[in-house]
Amino acid sequence: MQSQGIIHGGIKYALNGLLTPSANAIAGMPARWQSAMQNAEEVDLKSIIPLSEHHYMFTGKALGSKLTSFFASKAVRGRMEKASSTNTPDIFKHSLFSGDVYALNEWVLDIEQVTKALVTPYQDFALKIDEVDLIDHGSEIQIEIKHNHNQFKISAKNIILTAGEGTEALVKNLDKGVSWPNMQRRPLHMIAVKGQLPGLFGHCLGSGSKPLFTVTTLSSDDGDNVWSIGGDLAENGIDWSPEKQIEHAKNVIQKNLPWIDFTSTQWRTWHVNRAEPAQKSLIRPDTAFSFKKKNLTVCWPTKLALAPDLSDQIIELNQLNQPTPDFNLPDLPVAPIAKPYWQHLFN
Ligand SMILES: Cc1cc2nc3c(=O)[nH]c(=O)nc-3n(C[C@H](O)[C@H](O)[C@H](O)COP(=O)(O)OP(=O)(O)OC[C@H]3O[C@@H](n4cnc5c(N)ncnc54)[C@H](O)[C@@H]3O)c2cc1C
After folding, report:
1. 274 by DSSP, 3-state: which?
2. Whether residue 3 has its Cβ less than 6 Å from ligand 1
3. Whether the Cβ atoms of residue 108 and residue 7 lie closer than 8 Å to each other
4. Can you tell me the mean pLDDT for 144-171?
5. How far apart are the first and last CA of the chain?
6. Rounded CA gap, 242 and 258, in Å?
7. Per-residue pLDDT tens for 308-345?
8. Which of 198, 209, 258 shows the shortest CA–CA distance to 231?
9. If you measure from the C-alpha of residue 44 to the centroid of ligand 1, how many angstroms do you get, rounded to a whole number?
10. pTM value?
């Protein structure tokens, strides 16, 4: 529930001027999400209204010639275009803005709406429990859940484990004879700003191969906007105090968006880890990941955008056609959908 909700098509990973495997694997994802949202193809996501039908790339100053020619190249055609005077977002229509804006063919979604759309048809299966464990019986793995001092065991032909960062602990006690996949954590020190801010969905480019910062916007019930800020700013400053992280973020953001008035805004930070299959040198994995042994599939999508890639893998690994529940669930209350993380930050 902490994702910025950008359905990446991979352009962000091509800022060094090359379409890397990572950019290629993810390229088909926006179209699959969009067809699920427009035509309920594969999954019915019609209830989701995109926060923005484009994510943007912008620069504080005009782009260097290397990036300009890459952005004009055949490789990225159809995936992004230079914003024209009519489709430039309002935030950039200011005399102090002297950079370039590119519109990416990437929708930005409200992760709370995504969760609701995915969970609602299966709400009865989402149980509110105190604790869950996986028990290895040799040939079969069983789920053990605890609630209000009661214990229940669930057997199933296929168990798909998608517990994000919680996966590591759940897999730890399983059969040591199986090389269950190891997990890596890539930490972030994210920043949130709340106030009378304009909407912004964009990667701010600097001279490096990663965006300086990435902003998405959510609206708060009191009429304010909340900017969720990631990118390089959040990948750095992991050990910094919130005060230091905020001071640094303010400097970088004000330098690149000097006309935005932050006088009455509230700034917060929070720590979160990206949980992924372990890679050499903690690099970012290129695709979704899944691994099956016995009746358990361990997986990490590694990106929200890659969820369709992950579901393809799970369907193939488990030879699922039209999945029907093959287990009996205990009679327990249904779990509510969590509130968006940023609401807790500004209480
Ligand atoms: C700050 C941030 C921004 C991001 N932005 C983007 C983005 O814009 N676009 C993009 O494509 N990707 C983005 N990502 C990556 C993306 O959010 C993740 O890849 C995705 O959320 C992983 O989904 P998941 O369901 O596997 O794990 P999670 O979203 O982590 O969900 C796992 C769930 O399992 C539950 N759980 C864990 N352990 C247990 C347990 N023992 N018992 C019961 N429940 C348990 C957790 O409470 C959680 O609800 C972002 C990640 C972060 C951290």
Report:
1. strand
2. yes
3. yes
4. 94
5. 18
6. 22
7. 999 999 999 998 876 666 677 888 999 998 888 888 89
8. 209
9. 21
10. 0.94
Chain segment 186-214, per-residue pLDDT in tens? 999 999 999 999 999 999 998 777 899 99
Ligand 1 atom nearest 304 alpha carbon: 11
Instruction: Please report the sign of the dihedral spanned by the C-alpha atoms of residue 113, residue 82, residue 199, residue 238.
Output: positive
Element containing residue 142 per DSSP (H, E): strand 141-147
Q: What is the pLDDT of residue 78?
A: 72
Q: How far is the CA of 186 from the centre of ligand 1 (A)?
A: 12
Contacts 24+ apart (CB under 8 A), 320-327: 320/158, 325/125, 326/156, 326/157, 326/158, 327/154, 327/155, 327/156
Q: Is 300 in the pocket of ligand 1 (CB under 6 A)?
A: yes
The burial class, CB within 10 Å (0-12 / 13-18 / 19+), for 196 is exposed
Q: Which domains does the chain have, with CATH numbers?
A: 11-114+184-277 (3.30.9), 129-182+278-331 (no CATH)
Mutate to test the pocket of ligand 1, among 109, 304, 311 (most ligand atoms within 8 A of CB): 304
Looking at the CA of residue 214, tell me the nearest atom of ligand 1. Answer: 8
Q: Assign 163 to helix, strand or coil.
A: coil
Tokens at 69, concatenated:
């020619």
62 pLDDT band, cuts 50/70/90, is: low
Ligand 1 atom closest to residue 129's alpha carbon, by position in its atom list: 43
